[in-house]
Amino acid sequence: MTELNPLTVAVQMDPMEGIKIAGDSTFHIMLAAQARGHRLYHYLAPDLTLRDGRVLAKARPVKVQKVEGDHFAFGEPEMLDLGRDVDVVLMRQDPPFDLSYITATHLLERVQEETLVVNDPASVRNAPEKLFVLDYARFMPPTMITRDLAEVKSFLAQHGEIVVKPLYGNAGNAVFHVDGRGSNLSALVELFKASWVEPFMVQAFIPGVAEGDKRIVLVDGEIAGAVNRIPGAGEIRSNLAVGGSAAKTLLTDREREICAAMGPELKARGLLFVGIDVIGGEWLTEINVTSPTGIVSIDAFDGTDTGGMIWDAIDARLAQRAAA
Question: Where is the ATP-grasp domain (predicted)?
């Protein structure tokens, strides 16, 4: 597909009014699409309807511009058949990865034979960030998933310091550092068990997190770029959403090895836009497939066009489907 053959693109995301355009990756991708002449629609996940075997979305045509406070303009709502009326669906709403999110993947999976959905909804459903990463445990810090306090205490005794975090959290929410004394560990585990029905993740603490948590973006299995996210004062969390700052970075040999190991699998699963997190240049902690971020900072530091790379990869996927 080229500018002479524009696409109709439906973007399933969060409300346009609330996004922060200075660093929002979805907005960046929409700008790149619009620059190529593609027609954009916006809708929310609750706007999906299944009727008579067809997946519909009450969506609004949208134009975007890089002007803070005046960054979008909607047209009148239309009921789109996502299989017949649309070339590409971008599934880009932020987690939590809950039953609502999972239901949206099931609905979008039903249009996959007619319309390209990015990322592949079945693969998103089957690759939650803190579980899919376990396929690459050889690159991870020591990790445990449990609800058992005795197991957590044993793990702490073995590793000295640990990090406890919810299995389906996002943006650094509810990530706790526990020192060797284990102060309030029992109360923390009680809180996690009361707040979530699923197990939680426990990892050995990596002191190198003080130097940053590197976000590496892969587009269709290939490295697009990286940015180092540095924690704020008094923090171990480096997520930009909780006060971390971005810095230019280069990849280590170990990080390239990690990317090379997972790249073919990401491509095979239809996970076209993925962000992985690596601490200390060597420790893989997460593989983000739901709504990865970081491309605005990467492009600012490196002079790249990751949004354009994503659309090039989408064009290649569409060409493959047309030729099949």
Answer: 130-315
- The pLDDT value given to residue 3: 45
Q: What is the pLDDT of residue 1?
A: 39
For the chain, give the number of residues.
324
Per DSSP, the residues of 147-189 read S-HHHHHHHHHHHSSEEEEETT--TTTT-EEE-TT-TTHHHHH
- Residues 159-199: pLDDT tens digits? 999 999 999 877 678 889 999 999 899 999 999 999 999 99
Given a cut of 60, is residue 113 above it in pLDDT? yes
Structure confidence by residue, pLDDT tens digits, 293-309: 999 999 999 999 999 99
Question: How is residue 280 written in tokens?
Answer: 């200390």
Distance (Å) of CA 3 to CA 63, 153, 312, 313: 16, 58, 12, 15
Please list the residues that pair with 273 across neighbouring strands: 219
Question: Which one-letter DSSP state was computed for residue 73?
Answer: E
CA distances to 31, 55, 202, 254 from 209, in Å: 33, 44, 16, 16
Under 8 Å between Cβ of 153 and 160:
no
Per DSSP, the residues of 226-285 read EEEEEPPTT-S---GGGT-EEE-----HHHHHHHHHHHHHHHHTT--EEEEEEETTTEEE
Q: What is the per-residue pLDDT across 248-295, written as a single tens digit (0 to 9) for each?
A: 999 999 999 999 999 999 999 999 999 999 999 999 999 999 999 999
pLDDT of residue 236: 55
The two tokens of residue 157 are 């005794």
Q: Point out the residues that are catalytic.
A: 130, 165, 215, 229, 237, 277, 286, 288
d(CA 259, CA 214): 13
Picking from 67, 80, 11, 5, the residue whose alpha carbon sits closest to that of residue 40 is 11
| Distance (Å) of CA 62 to CA 15, 27, 72, 160 | 12, 11, 7, 52
Write down the pLDDT at residue 2: 41
